[in-house]
Predict the structure.
Amino acid sequence: MMFKRSTRLFLIPVLGLSLLALSSSCKSKTDEEAGNDDKAAAKKPYKSTGNEGTITGSIAYNGTPPAAKKIDTSADPVCAQKNPNLETDDTKVANGKLANVFVYIKEGKLSDNSKIGDYSFDVPSAPVVLDQNGCHYVPHVLGIQTNQTLKVTNSDPTQHNVHPGPQLNTEWNQSQAQGAAPIEKQFSRAEILIPVKCNQHPWMKSYIGVLNHPFFAVSAADGSFTIKGVPPGTYTVIAWHEGPGKGTELPPKTVTVAAKGSATADFAFGTATASGQSSLELMPALDFPMLGGH
């Protein structure tokens, strides 16, 4: 195609400005990505001093909890036979205590005034196991460190379909037949919390809390929890429980852990504390999101 000289003279500066803008955009993105890489690289490996302590507590449920509902598993005869009395377990309360609450340190400072987010922590070599047993995820809620291996197993004589739905990590969706090898995956970013479903059996669900550090726990059947190996310092502790929307998080507790000491953080969900609860989006924890992929 031929252009008149006047048209060519007009297009040259426009094209030049477009290329300059594109170059600036690419440079800006690269600089920001490099900055985030520098932050990650600048983290100091945490070395145990032997003075670490614990954070313990109990999760109560005030009021009358919603009754568990029987799940119809007849769509898969294997599920109906292996687990005929399967019920919902989103609110498991025994003697006024709530199970399956994810409790974790969100932020804080060590006794030397350094921030916990300034440190990197060794990733455990042992995997965290999520099993499918009785057409039910076990455990219902679990915690894992970034880049630690999640090992998904299938103990059922039927096929499952494992489908986490993260917002900050890479989503994946993988079938797992009876007797198939475990699925092993890792999450590279902190995220609270990732819902997991089974496309084969829509009633199945689980939640995975991913953190850059090991300071988290899930409340047991009696509502108790213990976070171990906490460096002396003052921290903000969060308690999360599944609920309407994206889950429910109570107002944080501030605790101080003395050298070789134990701090206490008790929480209470339920009707009596509903006004103090908030429904939250799935959010990162102690992470610096990076541009351009996961």
